[in-house]
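Before relying on records like the one below, remember that each one covers exactly one chain. Contacts with other chains, cofactors or solvent are not represented anywhere in the record.
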Amino acid sequence: MMSDTPIPTMTMTMPTMAMLGMDGPYPMSREASGTSWQPDSTPMEGLHHMGDPWMTMWHGFADLIYDDQGGPRGDTKTFSNSMLMFMARHDLSDGAFGVRLMGSLDPLMGKDGYPELFQTGETADGVHPLIDRQHPHNLLMEAALTYSLNISSDQAAFAYAGLAGEPALGPPAFMHRFSGMDDPEAPLTHHWLDSTHITDGVVTAGYVWDRVKLEASSFNGREPDQNRYDVELRKFDSYSARLSYNPTSDLALQVSTGRLASPEQLERDISVHRTTASLSDNRMVESVRWQTTFAFGRNSPDIGAASDAWLLESAVILSDARTVFGRVERVAKDELFLPGQALYGQSFTIDSLSVGYIYDFARFGLTRVGVGGLLSAYRYPKILDASYGSEPLSYLLFIRVKL
């Protein structure tokens, strides 16, 4: 029997062995971005089609956002960010074959992305770095195939290969973490934790044993350039390894490490060794859904000092219509000034606190429509007051459509 049925976020209870993962004989709800894991009890959103032998899933969102970043370095902009993901799993006699596709219309917002105080990384013109702005994502975010071979009822070997995809490095990408996906603003810790979630060229192989997974990747370490509509394939020059462990259905842990060869287009002579660790806790009690993620990342470049980043984020869905979310971050930033400026090259510890709310006021077919807001505050060394002002506040107002 076949059906096209939207699975309600609030009434779905996982895990269920009716929907097995792409990479092994475990609940599909365990799978997040790329080959990363999240808690088994994480709600599965989107449109699911259960058939024989294919299972498919669609999931996505689009936000229309007004962004006002405070202080002298702040800016305002109205823009949209979005994501649409398609997954398909084909049962095999001894495993499964999978397809993963994901895209975004972010390039339409312009190459310089959107204003975000203290955000750094990548470039809009191939010459100057983006500072106090978040870059847009590529049109093609993922195009990957997977194959898993069951060794026993709880063991499997798998392979993942992508024209665009995500290597085994870091926690699930922020737009796929249940604790962070409703926040329309990218974390300041993005380039310490999950910036490799769009990699043009990646191959991963791994082994799953019940609640434990060990995997390794070879990939192109260069982050995407300012041309967001193309795919920039280069030789595989980087590698990573990740150990994941879900001790209970409500917990997901990972540690990972990797070497990224010249990740920044404007610093091609500098490679980075990245180490991350994270824990996600998911709670489902009656009508309340609550997930929290704690993560740490360290970047150790070939040239210069190592820097650390910490993230704590949480989302609480109080009902089918109301979501409260927040994020606390601490990160060491040394890219806030250009060459020739007095503070160029110095590292500063930045603390940020963001709190947001979404109210889903309407449903149209398979989609939910909501309105929300986000308020952010910062703490930083006094020497930055001349550039950023004293205690600036930033806010986002947005309308969201979610599948």
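The domain at 3-402 is CATH 2.40.160.10 (Porin).
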